[in-house]
Structure formats: C-alpha cells, structure tokens
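Protein 1 of 2
SEQ + STRUCT:
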Amino acid sequence: MTVATKEDAPVKLIPTKIWRCKNQDCKAWIRDEFISTDPLCPMCKGPMGRSMRHLPAVQNKVKAQPRKPKSEYE
C-alpha cells in the first residue's frame, strides 16, 4: 500500500502494531514499539487495547556507542 505525499513521492506503508484507546470518544493511539508496559491513554487516561494500522516506517535513531579498546587479555 502506498500514499502520495505533497512532493508526489509515494510512501510505503507497512502493517504496524499499535495501542489504541478503548474509549470511543477518544482518538489516541501509540505505536507498540514506543511502549514498555500496558499503557494508559495519554489523552483521557483510559485503558488501551492492541490493534494494527498501515503506517509509514519509522527509523529509530540510535547513537553509536564508542567502541572499547581491545584488551590484550581477551
């Protein structure tokens, strides 16, 4: 599945696990990869349930860790 953007460059959408608010009046949702425990809704503080959405891929930027110098004893 693709979606055209303002620049007319297609964006590839992938099935993504999410948590969405169970309150029908609330539209909040969070990607599963950004949750560490069973979440409460950040908007209404209600319970959230797992679901799926087709979303653009997100690149998580991880800072490179400095390498430890090799020890002559290893």
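Protein 2 of 2
SEQ + STRUCT:
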Amino acid sequence: MVIATIADQITRTIEGVGHTLTAPFSDPVIRLGVTGLSRAGKTVFITSLVANLMDRGRMPQLEAAASGSIRTAYLQPQPDDTVPRFAYETYLTQLTAPDPSWPQGTRQISELRISLRVQPSGLLSGLSGPRTVHIDIVDYPGEWLLDLGLLDQTYAEWSTAALDRAKGRPGGDHYAALAAGVDPTVALDEPQAQVLAERFTAHLKEAREAGFSDCSPGRFLLPGDLAGSPVLTFAPLPDARYPRGSLGREFERRFESYKRNVVRPFFQDHFAKIDRQIVLVDVLGAIHAGPAALDDLRNAMARILGAFRPGRNAFLTRIFQGRRVEKILFAATKADHLHHSQHPQLTAITQALLREAKDRADFAGAQTAAMSIAALRTTVEETVDHKDGPLDVVRGRLRDTNKQAAFYPGKLPDDPAHLLAPAREGSDKWLDADYSIMNFAPAPLTRKPGDGPPHIRLDKAAQFLFGDRL
C-alpha cells in the first residue's frame, strides 16, 4: 500500500510537471472550484456566472467586460471526458422560465468549460491579436467537503469527535445511547452493523435539516452508487481495544477503506487541481438556526479550509510542489434577503466567522477576500411604515405559497462579536434579537438584449477570482 501510494504521487507529480512545462505555449486555463455546504447556492452561482459571462451587460465591475476586452464567450467540451458536464442549459431554462423554479442541488461532481476571447490591453495591445482564456468550473456536492478532514484522523479519533458532536443535536442523543449499549469487542454481526449505520445516517440527516453544517461523512448523506456498500456501513463506537473479527475492528477497517477509496481519490483527482476557489456560505441560514448552528459553521469552515493548499502558483513552485490555490473568496450568499443597508454587516460577520481559516490562507500566500453576494436576485427593496419608524425591507415571491411578501429578517449587529460570542459560549438562543429567514422563489425575468440574470456583486466576485487573468 505504501509503495502504491508513493508510485501514485510520483505519477501525479510527473503529470503536473508536464502540464506546467507546456502551459506557456498553450491557451491559459483557470480551474475554478465552487464549494460550499448544502443549500449555499452552488448550482445557481455557476449558472448565473456563466450566463453573465455570455451576456455581460450586468458585469460592470469585471474590468475586462466593462472595457470591452472580452470579445466573445462560448461554451465548449470540457477536457475531462470522465466527469459529467454541468447541466447549464437545463438550469438556466428553469431559472428564466415564465414560471421560474430553483434547480436541484448538486448531487455529483460536474464540470463546465467556458472560453473567453480576450483582446490584451496595455501598451502592447496593438501588437497582438485576441487570445483565448479557458475557465474550467468544477462543481461538487458540499456534503463531501468535510470528508477531507477525515484524512488526518484515525477511526478512534473520528468516533470520539462524532459522538461528542452528536450531543444535543437532533437524533444525536438517541444514537449515542444506542452506541453506548453496543459492545464493540463482540464478533461482527452484519445486520447489527447495518442498523448502526442507518441510525447514524438518520441522525446526520436530521442535524443537517436543523441547520448544522458539520455532518460527516458526506457520502452518508449523498451515497450515489455506493448506497448499501460496506464502505458506507460503519458508524462511531466507544473507544476500546478491538480484537480481530470484532464489530469495532471491522468498522475501523471500513473507515480506513472509506478514506482510501472515496475521500483520497476525490481530493487527488479534483480538489488538488484547483487554481482559484470560491467558498459559498449560507451565513443567514446559520444565524437563523441559532448560536449552536453558527458556531458549528465556523468550525466546519475552518476544517474545510485546512484541506486547501493555498499559495502562489509560481512557475517553479508548480513544478516542485504541485498546484496551489492562489485566490480564495468567501462569499455570504442570499444577500438579496437583506436590504443593501445591511450588506456591510453581513460581510463583517462572514469575515469574523472565517477569521481562523482566512488567516491560515493569507499566511500561506493566497489572496483572500470576503463579500456578500446574490448570484440571482429574487427580491426588490422597499421602505415601509412601521410603528417604530420607516423600515427597510425586501419584497419577493414566496416559494411555498407563490404570493408576494415583504420581509424584514431582523437587524444584524454592527459588531460581529455580538453573534460570535454567544455562539462560542454555547448559548441556546440569541439574547436580544430573533433572526428569521424566508424561502423566496426566483422572480420572473425581463431581460434586455445583452443582459444576464440580475445579481448582487457577482461581477465583483468574478473580478477577484479571475479578472487578473483576463
């Protein structure tokens, strides 16, 4: 196994060197990773980004679009024939139909290549013709992200952490009681193993629905073609010395198999090849779920970012160390659920929430930024009369009833510590405020020729992520 791992690493290094040496003589390629936990809006972000790169009328903060340097944009086959294509046309049709609807969330890895024909700017622009820049967008289920943190854990360490996280969460105490009544040193009984795995999976699903972020292993929630396989039939057990042939020893073996056969290939084949990264975060959803969910999101994002290899993709660095993430954008989604007067507070909370992870990335040499965005704007802003004075609200079409409604989620604090401190202290609820959230449906669109779907700061996000390469 060690020899195979070393051989695999050598092969990948040779492939990376070959790519690096030929890159200066071919069209530049930017591999953009789109990550985020469940319901953060990855599918909508990619769809709207591509649509707004094709029709750039709403992209004034993308400098190459505003200056006219981008002559044209077009889709073409992706370079990896083994990865499903991102269903851009299907999703765009759903979002722009007369009665629009949200597309289904990400359930598998997919990829899409958009190519931009760009006229170089500057003093030498007249001496060279347009060049092509390819952007390969890689999308994958957010539920798989936290699995990257398992690579550095033993089964005993993971079991202890998983049982500790389960305390107080929906279904967690029930599973913990079930696990406490199991003797992990007894001989393996497959029906018992399946029951434990099913109960633990049920707990993860309940916790996710309640707004918690750290619900790993991710494939338990989206198993795909691995459903029912032994590699997904394990669960955390109390720490003990597991004799050969015991339930605990078999769960330990399956945990290591999960890392080796599921997590590591995903990391090596997709995650480790990213140049630029956007991390979508549903901060408003976590705030609405309460202090425990917000602190869980903070911990989850810190663990996720620990798996990145941030740093500058200098020529020699890429030869000897492999590709590294040059830029990471932390984007709080659903900014259209707030009046623009509260967007600075949402951005400040996002920056504070991700401070630990961001500091590590900055230290490693990557450029990082945080902002509030809405990849598809679903609301309009209004000011309504209230007993305490004028109130800034947003109005949109409710997903459940299809009726128009004005919405005020609550005033976010100017100081993020007013939220993060209770979250760290384990408070059950916010002491001086209640924060609500609504599920808005996409609004019917009327677009001018040359305009993409309406958004909030999608152009600014694009400028940070790849504007320098255009």
